[in-house]
Each structure stands twice: as structure tokens, then as C-alpha cells.
Amino acid sequence: MCTRLKQCCWGGTIGILLAFVVPSLVVFAPPLGISSFLAISPPPLSTPSYQDTYSVLQNPWAIKPEYVGNIDEETLWLARAMFSESKRHDEQELIGWIVRNRLHTKFHGCNSYRECVLAPAQFSAFLPGQPKLNYYTSLVETTQIPGWQKTLALAFYIRHADDRLRPFSSNVRHFYSEQSMLDPELPPDWVGDADPVYPQRNIRLDERRFRFYAGLR
Predict the structure, then answer these.
(1) Other C-beta atoms within 10 Å of 56: how many?
(2) What is the mean pLDDT of residues 48-64?
(3) Angle between helices 148-160 and 73-85 (to 10 degrees)
(4) Distance between CA 215 and CA 217 in Å, rounded?
(5) CA quadruple 87, 88, 89, 95: dihedral sign
(6) Residue 191 CB burial class (10 angstroms; 0-12, 13-18, ≥19)
(7) Cα–Cα distance between 136 and 65 in angstroms, integer?
(8) How far apart are CA 47 and CA 53, in angstroms?
(9) Which pLDDT score, from 0 to 100, does residue 43 have?
(10) What is the per-residue DSSP string for the chain?
(11) pLDDT in tens, 133-163
């Protein structure tokens, strides 16, 4: 009887100890759905191939948004400029190349897409005092507004596109829209007597919306 009593006492003591010690040692896993969600992160974006980029630029309207969270700061600034000038993806592509040309030719000394976009008296939406300045500079990769995610993806392709896919030569760095002018018949002073240039690829261009120029300072 004594032996059984001792065994019961020891068993009770051990049970009490386990009740306090075990919970502190055990890490309970979250439900499967939550753990799966936490474990998944968007894969890093790889440089698109020539063929993939060619396919995208043939039909920018059909572009698929890239994974959120992997768009770098430079692509973000390029996309902001494109989105500020047009919501049409075919026009956005041409504008994106203009900004890329400015960077690659160090236009006005800019060394980044951010510097190109914020350069004084260049892109109207980013001029100090403009009512939409805060709106466009606040756009980030997670912003959910119509067309923005596709613009981000298009900017990513333009940044990494092979030079053979250019719609313009690298000295095409200016454009304007007569629809944004107070007098549509009067072009900006910087146009002078220059003639507009046209995309080298089969891209429909409405001159009333955008005109592009080469070789201007």
C-alpha cells in the first residue's frame, strides 16, 4: 500500500511540474492557412528576356502586373512620370523611353530616374506648387488604382529593354501635348522650328495628344 501511495504521490508531483514546464517549451504552429501565407514571399524579379520584352511592347495594354513588393525605387519614379502624363499604356511606353533617354544621355546632368523626373521645369506634374504633386509622388507599388499596377510593370520592362527595341533614337528627349496647352495652336517656345519625330515601330500616335522631338536641349 505504502509503495503504491508513494508512486501516486510521485506521479502527481510530476504531473504538476509538466503542467507548468511543458507549455513554456512548446511552440504551437499557427493554422495551416496562416503559416502558408507567411512563408510565401514574391520571388525576385529577373531581367526580362528580349523576346518577353518584345511581346510586351507589341501590346502594352495586355501587360500583366508584376509581383507587388519587388519594384525598386528607380522603376517607381519612371512609372510615376509615365502615369502622370498619360493613362494610356501605348502612350506611356513612349514617355517611358523619353525619360530613359534623358537618363542615358545625362540630360541636364541627371544621374537617376528620380533626378530626371524632378528636374526643374521638366515634367509638369512634379513642378513645385502643382496640385497633383503629392498625389503622384505618393504612388507606391501597393497603390491600388486603375491602371497603376500595369504602369509599374511596363516601366520595369522599359528600364531593362534591349536598345534594339527603342521606338526612338536616344536623342529624342522632348515631347508635349497640345491638349495641355492654353493655346493648342501655339507650341512651347523650346520647339522652335523643329519637326516632330515618329516612332520607328508600328505604334499608333495621335499628334493631338503627343508630339516628340529630337536633338533639343
Answers:
(1) 22
(2) 92
(3) 120
(4) 7
(5) negative
(6) middle
(7) 19
(8) 10
(9) 66
(10) -HHHHHHHHHHHHHHHHHHHHHHHH--PPPPHHHHHHHH--PPPPPPPPHHHHHHHHH-GGGPPPPPTT---HHHHHHHHHHHHH-S-HHHHHHHHHHHHHHHHTTGGG--SHHHHHHSTTSSGGGSTT-TTHHHHHT--TT---TTHHHHHHHHHHHHH--GGG-SS-TTEEEEE-GGGSSSTTS--GGGTTPPPB--SSS----TTT-EEEES--
(11) 999 999 999 999 999 999 999 999 999 999 9
The three cell numbers locating residue 99: 525619360
Q: Which amino acid is at 210?
A: F
C-alpha cell at 34: 496562416
